[in-house]
Amino acid sequence: MGGVVVVGVGPGIGVAVAGRFVREGMSAGLIARSEEKLKLAADALAGAEVVAVAADSSDEDRLRAALDRIIAEHGVPDVVVYNAAVIQADAIGDLTAQQHLDAWAVNVVGAITTAAHVVPAMVERGGGTFIITGGMPQPKAGYLSLSLGKAGVRSLVTMLDQQYGGAGIHAATVTVSGGVAPGSVWDPDDIADHYWRLHSQPPTEWTHEVVL
């Protein structure tokens, strides 16, 4: 059994997804900006083979270095999950141009960097799964930057499939429509099951978006 890499691991979906794949016998590579979040995630996966590396997903050099370190220890991953996002309420006129660029850098560009760095190696190895945590199935004016970002990663999944689907890469997004909380409609453990189902699908049955 291979490994999963989660970029943007945290106490909700990120650690639940890592845990779901670890239960299937996989190793886990964890990337987050916060050392505290990394420690909490690693502690939650105690007993598993885990590499945790601090990196901001908007910092291309550090993100690539973090991915390289995980690959050096665990090999090319079978599954990559991009879960990083700037989740904030903002409307037209609330943010400066730079603040919009900063949000886009995390919400979309970090996913592009991750895919560009890892997917070609996955293709060379024979295939794999690349899943992005989506959201905002309908744009909301009160969540401008997040709505734009989630629309961006939905399009990115389509383009990843166009470029790499024929080479064995299953690109998909899990679109989460509301606030994640244990015991709620959007329980992180229930959500994590969908990531595993996507990875387990044979190519003839690939789904490219799950809306929850």
From TrEMBL:
| GO MF term list | 2,3-dihydro-2,3-dihydroxybenzoate dehydrogenase activity
Pfam short name (any one): adh_short
**Top-level taxon in the UniProt lineage:** Bacteria
Q: Which residues form the signal peptide?
A: none
GO aspect biological process, one term? siderophore biosynthetic process
Q: State the protein's name.
A: Short subunit dehydrogenase
Species of origin: Kribbella voronezhensis
